[in-house]
Amino acid sequence: MTATLESPAATLPATTTVRGACPHDCPDTCSLITTVVGGIAIKVQGNPAHKHTDGVLCAKVSRYTERTYHADRILTPLKRVGPKGSGQFAPVSWDAALSDIATRLKEIAARDPQAILPYSYAGTMGLVQGESMDRRFFHQLGASLLERTICASAGGEGLNQTLGGKVGMKVEHFAEARLILIWGSNSIGSNLHFWRYAQQAKRAGARLVCIDPRRTETAEKCHEHIALRPGTDAALALAMMHELVVNDWLDHDYLANYTLGWDALRARALTWTPERAAEVCGIPAEQIRTLARDYGQCFVDGQPAAIRLNYGMQRTHGGGNATRAVVSLPALIGAWRQRAGGVLLSSSGQFPVDRVALQRPDLLAGRTPRSINMSTIGDALLAPATAQAPAIEAVVVYNSNPVAVAPESAKVVQGFAREDVFTVVLEHFHTDTADYADYVLPATTQLEHWDVHSAYGHTDALLNQPAVAPVGQALSNTEIFRQLAARMGFTDACFQDSDETLCRTAYGSKVDFAQLRSDGFATLALPDAPFAQGDFPTPSGKCEFFSQRLAALGQDGLPDYVANHESLGSSADYPLAMISPPARNFLNSTFVNVKSLRDIEGEPLLEICEADASARGITTGDTVRVFNGRGSYRCKAKVTPRARAGVVHGMGIWWRKLGLDGTNVNELTSQRLTDMGRAPTFYDCLVQVSKEAT
Q1: 403 by DSSP, 3-state: which?
Q2: Distance between CA 104 and CA 111 in Å, rounded?
Q3: How confident is the model at residue 164 (pLDDT cuts 50, 70, 90)?
Q4: Taking the chain, what is the end-to-end CA distance rounded to the nearest angstrom?
Q5: Is residue 617 helix, strand or coil?
Q6: Which of 201, 211, 261, 354 suits 268 as a labelling partner, its CA being 20 to 30 A distant?
Q7: What is residue 194's three-state secondary structure?
Q8: Neighbouring C-beta atoms of residue 504, cutoff 10 Å
């Protein structure tokens, strides 16, 4: 029956569906469909038309409406009225907040704009809300530049020095592999849609091997788990090379024509016997031989072998070298010849993003501001002025929660607690960092703004269209910086670009925007086996085992094992190695305040093996103190076979304010950096654990 004005159906609110993209720091970058009824988003689902998403979302993002409509969401600008860290704020108008912020920034910039620091990372992976109008603003201002290193820069630099960029095999082709090495990745928790392809391969007879210090959910589902010590991956990769050489499981033609530096790498590999690597890695030599034999046999049989590497492996001192060693392996057996062979760490370098047009570095107008590493923000905030550079006087934080996620957080807290550091935070919630802000500005969530995305786990570009109007007084990041630019007197026409214009700018003519609007995604036109005949984006066009670029910097041009800053056995006071992998239902510090997800996680945990626990009188449920020379952290213990002897897992990243004593695991991590990429060493951390007295 057709509805009339008098019929009940005519009074029902309109229902629409809107295509979007998941904004979070995950390789899957899912395509979303949001159902909207009467202007309210009621459901977020995976897009069944997008082959990588296939209609399925993780538990976190399937609850995204809980985030947008959360009772604790910040919906009006707030001004601090209590001590820093107290979380005491009063609501103010947008005009009052932005006018005062602009005045304060102008005063500082008049002395030296480098005293102003932007601090952002991947709270959204969107190219528009994450790295467009904000970069234009800070370039025009002449603020300090931020080295965005906190997650992936060691592995990224390792890829760049070996393969020429963040490139690799297509994720869908893992379904055709006969051997899959899942290296440093808990794919079930952090790369769910890759896991679907791995399961397809497994059902077709593929062997799956998980290489990870922790017995993860993924490790439990693989045929074999190799539980090496943290930071020893390069030693394992070099010993695999040793076995490939001595057994002649090598594609000599590929090595001769499409690689650079093979003779030197071969000589180094021959020094890494399985016995030597076994002693370093803490695993049986025979396990190394078996792994190498499985890998080499794929070459002998003409079967594809694939490596899914993730960024957990590169969060130690030698993370860059370890990445170089692992991503060199496919060339030894010519795995790149087949579309289901090779390695994937990140695909993001394959996207034709026009970052110059988005970010407008020309607005610097010849100025060369200093760079500050986000991974050492604790030291940076506490550093005094020098003749060369001013002390930091203002920080604008967006898309990040440094008080919770940055290493050596006691120093980070001390720095943000400075009364003479003017701090502005763009946020959805009262995070640990927001508590230290002078102003907190309410930002939109992904359901409320335009954005366009690349990915690092597949090769589809995605568009996010706003499903609902902004909740409360929230504004998008771009609009906040647009309005601040106007109050700062910035007159360049680029500050007037709309969000849709910015979305179009990101890819220009390289990706069909009409297709993005109609389908929500567009697949990049890329070859299935891009390196079958070399053609790597390196200076030589070859897989560079030897990097002349590294050698020119005085570094070793070949991959090697680089020991941890804090190696197991090097300290009697702190005999345990601690890694801090993400809790399955959180994503970095995001979603920690979603009660349904926090209830699943329960409370901050330290996983410890039976032997290490019994030696300390610890049982599951005990409150323990985890400590080292940098700090102390209290949490609950879980005695579990997920932990190997000598290694504990401080599951993260809980907000500090939700911890047992107002701290989290980053109280213990250090600000020391990796061998390349200037990245943090979160998984290179010695501790001791003791049971709390009752």
Answers
A1: helix
A2: 11
A3: very high
A4: 71
A5: coil
A6: 211
A7: helix
A8: 18
